[in-house]
Amino acid sequence: MTIEDYDEVYAMWQITSKRALSSSDSRENIKRYLERNKGMSMVAVCDGKIVGTVLAGHDGRTGFIHHTAVHPDYRRKHIGKALVQNAVQRISESGINKTQIYCYKDNSTGQSFWKSMGFNRTDNVLFEAKKE
Ligand SMILES: CC(C)(COP(=O)(O)OP(=O)(O)OC[C@H]1O[C@@H](n2cnc3c(N)ncnc32)[C@H](O)[C@@H]1OP(=O)(O)O)[C@@H](O)C(=O)NCCC(=O)NCCS
Question: Among 18, 50, 74, 76, which residue has the most ligand 1 atoms within 8 Å of its CB, making it the best to mutate?
Protein backbone atom coordinates (compact mmCIF):
# COMPACT_ATOMS: atom_id res chain seq x y z
CA MET A 1 0.00 0.00 0.00
CA THR A 2 1.17 3.51 -0.77
CA ILE A 3 -0.37 6.85 0.12
CA GLU A 4 -1.55 7.11 -3.52
CA ASP A 5 -4.00 4.31 -2.67
CA TYR A 6 -5.54 6.35 0.16
CA ASP A 7 -8.72 7.65 -1.54
CA GLU A 8 -9.67 4.23 -2.92
CA VAL A 9 -8.80 2.49 0.35
CA TYR A 10 -10.74 4.99 2.45
CA ALA A 11 -13.78 4.62 0.18
CA MET A 12 -13.65 0.83 0.69
CA TRP A 13 -13.28 1.25 4.47
CA GLN A 14 -16.53 3.26 4.42
CA ILE A 15 -18.20 0.01 3.33
CA THR A 16 -16.17 -2.54 5.30
CA SER A 17 -14.89 -0.84 8.43
CA LYS A 18 -16.94 2.30 9.16
CA ARG A 19 -17.21 1.68 12.90
CA ALA A 20 -13.45 1.29 13.27
CA LEU A 21 -12.59 4.53 11.46
CA SER A 22 -11.48 7.59 13.41
CA SER A 23 -9.31 10.68 13.11
CA SER A 24 -6.36 8.25 13.30
CA ASP A 25 -7.20 7.35 9.70
CA SER A 26 -6.72 10.80 8.19
CA ARG A 27 -4.55 10.97 5.08
CA GLU A 28 -1.78 12.63 7.09
CA ASN A 29 -1.79 9.91 9.75
CA ILE A 30 -1.89 7.04 7.26
CA LYS A 31 0.98 8.66 5.34
CA ARG A 32 3.03 8.80 8.54
CA TYR A 33 2.09 5.23 9.41
CA LEU A 34 3.18 3.92 6.00
CA GLU A 35 6.46 5.82 6.26
CA ARG A 36 7.17 4.45 9.76
CA ASN A 37 6.35 0.88 8.69
CA LYS A 38 7.74 0.81 5.18
CA GLY A 39 6.59 -1.95 2.85
CA MET A 40 4.48 -3.72 5.49
CA SER A 41 0.90 -2.70 4.68
CA MET A 42 -0.81 -4.16 1.65
CA VAL A 43 -3.75 -3.85 -0.68
CA ALA A 44 -5.28 -6.71 -2.66
CA VAL A 45 -6.20 -5.78 -6.23
CA CYS A 46 -8.76 -7.68 -8.31
CA ASP A 47 -10.37 -6.63 -11.57
CA GLY A 48 -8.24 -3.46 -11.45
CA LYS A 49 -9.63 -2.22 -8.13
CA ILE A 50 -8.63 -2.41 -4.51
CA VAL A 51 -10.71 -5.10 -2.80
CA GLY A 52 -8.69 -5.77 0.35
CA THR A 53 -6.43 -4.04 2.84
CA VAL A 54 -4.22 -4.72 5.81
CA LEU A 55 -2.25 -2.19 7.83
CA ALA A 56 0.77 -3.79 9.48
CA GLY A 57 3.50 -2.38 11.65
CA HIS A 58 5.31 -2.72 14.95
CA ASP A 59 6.55 -0.58 17.81
CA GLY A 60 9.90 -2.31 18.16
CA ARG A 61 8.65 -5.15 20.37
CA THR A 62 5.11 -6.10 19.26
CA GLY A 63 3.48 -6.26 15.84
CA PHE A 64 0.07 -4.71 15.25
CA ILE A 65 -2.39 -5.33 12.46
CA HIS A 66 -5.23 -2.92 11.75
CA HIS A 67 -8.00 -2.54 9.17
CA THR A 68 -7.96 -6.04 7.78
CA ALA A 69 -10.83 -5.75 5.35
CA VAL A 70 -12.14 -7.32 2.16
CA HIS A 71 -14.85 -5.84 -0.04
CA PRO A 72 -18.12 -7.79 0.47
CA ASP A 73 -18.17 -8.91 -3.21
CA TYR A 74 -14.81 -10.64 -2.81
CA ARG A 75 -15.12 -12.39 0.54
CA ARG A 76 -14.50 -16.10 1.31
CA LYS A 77 -11.83 -16.35 -1.38
CA HIS A 78 -8.96 -16.35 1.12
CA ILE A 79 -7.98 -12.78 0.24
CA GLY A 80 -8.11 -11.78 3.93
CA LYS A 81 -6.07 -14.85 4.81
CA ALA A 82 -3.38 -14.03 2.23
CA LEU A 83 -3.20 -10.40 3.40
CA VAL A 84 -2.79 -11.39 7.06
CA GLN A 85 -0.30 -14.18 6.32
CA ASN A 86 1.83 -11.69 4.38
CA ALA A 87 1.51 -9.06 7.11
CA VAL A 88 2.57 -11.50 9.84
CA GLN A 89 5.46 -12.65 7.65
CA ARG A 90 6.68 -9.08 7.18
CA ILE A 91 6.39 -8.35 10.90
CA SER A 92 8.29 -11.53 11.65
CA GLU A 93 11.01 -10.58 9.14
CA SER A 94 11.51 -7.44 11.25
CA GLY A 95 12.41 -9.68 14.18
CA ILE A 96 9.05 -9.37 15.97
CA ASN A 97 7.47 -12.67 16.97
CA LYS A 98 4.22 -11.49 18.59
CA THR A 99 1.41 -9.76 16.73
CA GLN A 100 -1.77 -8.29 18.19
CA ILE A 101 -5.06 -7.35 16.59
CA TYR A 102 -8.18 -5.66 17.92
CA CYS A 103 -11.61 -7.05 17.13
CA TYR A 104 -14.98 -5.82 18.38
CA LYS A 105 -16.56 -8.34 20.74
CA ASP A 106 -19.74 -8.48 18.63
CA ASN A 107 -17.90 -8.97 15.32
CA SER A 108 -18.56 -12.69 14.98
CA THR A 109 -17.20 -12.86 11.41
CA GLY A 110 -14.02 -11.13 12.53
CA GLN A 111 -13.66 -13.50 15.46
CA SER A 112 -14.13 -16.59 13.28
CA PHE A 113 -11.61 -15.19 10.86
CA TRP A 114 -8.95 -14.45 13.50
CA LYS A 115 -9.48 -17.81 15.14
CA SER A 116 -8.95 -19.54 11.79
CA MET A 117 -5.76 -17.52 11.37
CA GLY A 118 -4.43 -18.93 14.64
CA PHE A 119 -4.89 -15.82 16.80
CA ASN A 120 -5.81 -16.60 20.40
CA ARG A 121 -8.52 -14.54 21.99
CA THR A 122 -7.81 -12.94 25.37
CA ASP A 123 -10.59 -11.67 27.62
CA ASN A 124 -8.48 -10.47 30.49
CA VAL A 125 -7.35 -7.16 29.00
CA LEU A 126 -9.39 -4.00 29.37
CA PHE A 127 -8.83 -1.66 26.45
CA GLU A 128 -10.16 1.87 26.43
CA ALA A 129 -9.43 4.41 23.73
CA LYS A 130 -8.71 8.01 24.61
CA LYS A 131 -9.80 10.58 22.06
CA GLU A 132 -8.56 14.17 22.17
C1 LIG B 1 -12.98 -10.57 8.21
C2 LIG B 1 -12.72 -10.44 6.70
C3 LIG B 1 -11.47 -9.55 6.50
C4 LIG B 1 -12.43 -11.83 6.14
O5 LIG B 1 -11.97 -11.72 4.79
P6 LIG B 1 -12.15 -12.91 3.74
O7 LIG B 1 -11.23 -12.65 2.61
O8 LIG B 1 -13.59 -13.08 3.41
O9 LIG B 1 -11.69 -14.16 4.60
P10 LIG B 1 -11.00 -15.49 4.05
O11 LIG B 1 -11.69 -15.96 2.80
O12 LIG B 1 -9.53 -15.28 3.96
O13 LIG B 1 -11.34 -16.50 5.23
C14 LIG B 1 -10.35 -17.23 5.94
C15 LIG B 1 -11.07 -18.05 6.99
O16 LIG B 1 -11.70 -17.20 7.96
C17 LIG B 1 -12.94 -17.77 8.38
N18 LIG B 1 -14.06 -16.90 7.94
C19 LIG B 1 -13.99 -15.86 7.08
N20 LIG B 1 -15.21 -15.31 6.94
C21 LIG B 1 -16.05 -16.01 7.71
C22 LIG B 1 -17.46 -15.92 7.97
N23 LIG B 1 -18.24 -14.99 7.39
N24 LIG B 1 -18.01 -16.81 8.81
C25 LIG B 1 -17.25 -17.78 9.41
N26 LIG B 1 -15.91 -17.92 9.20
C27 LIG B 1 -15.32 -17.04 8.35
C28 LIG B 1 -13.04 -19.13 7.69
O29 LIG B 1 -12.43 -20.09 8.54
C30 LIG B 1 -12.20 -18.90 6.44
O31 LIG B 1 -11.66 -20.07 5.90
P32 LIG B 1 -12.58 -20.99 4.91
O33 LIG B 1 -13.25 -20.07 3.93
O34 LIG B 1 -11.57 -21.91 4.27
O35 LIG B 1 -13.59 -21.67 5.78
C36 LIG B 1 -13.94 -9.85 5.95
O37 LIG B 1 -15.10 -10.59 6.30
C38 LIG B 1 -14.20 -8.39 6.25
O39 LIG B 1 -13.64 -7.51 5.60
N40 LIG B 1 -15.07 -8.10 7.24
C41 LIG B 1 -15.38 -6.70 7.59
C42 LIG B 1 -14.20 -6.03 8.25
C43 LIG B 1 -13.79 -6.77 9.49
O44 LIG B 1 -14.61 -7.09 10.36
N45 LIG B 1 -12.49 -7.02 9.60
C46 LIG B 1 -11.90 -7.65 10.77
C47 LIG B 1 -11.59 -6.58 11.76
S48 LIG B 1 -11.21 -7.27 13.36
Answer: 76
